[in-house]
Specification:
The protein is an all-alpha fold. 68% of the residues lie in helices and 0% in strands. The protein is built from 4 helices and no strands. The chain is elongated.
């Protein structure tokens, strides 16, 4: 067979291979495995309001957006009811 030198070499490989792999994949992760522009920039993300006036402005903005969507939905529903569209025989009954 191989002798004691081969056994020492094999033992060294068994020990060093996982350590070398963990070292390679565990260091310099930001440069090696990063995807450019994956996360949005902080100035383009939603900022949580903490002050009372900021909260009120955000609530007003959300309320206006909700009401605008509601008005649009009601207008589309009214238009569908008045316009009729192409209804099949089963839908008319």
């Amino acid at each position: 067979m191989g002798g004691p030198n081969l056994e020492v070499f094999k033992f060294g490989m068994y020990i060093m291979f996982p350590i070398a792999t963990m070292y390679y994949f565990g260091t310099n992760l930001d440069n090696r495995f990063s995807v450019r522009d994956f996360w949005p920039a902080p100035e383009t993300t939603h900022r949580i309001p903490f002050e009372r006036d900021e909260m009120k402005a955000e609530l007003d903005r959300l309320r206006a957006r909700r009401l605008e969507r509601r008005e649009r939905r009601l207008a589309e529903t009214k238009q569908d009811e008045n316009g009729g569209g192409d209804a099949t025989e089963g839908e008319r009954q």
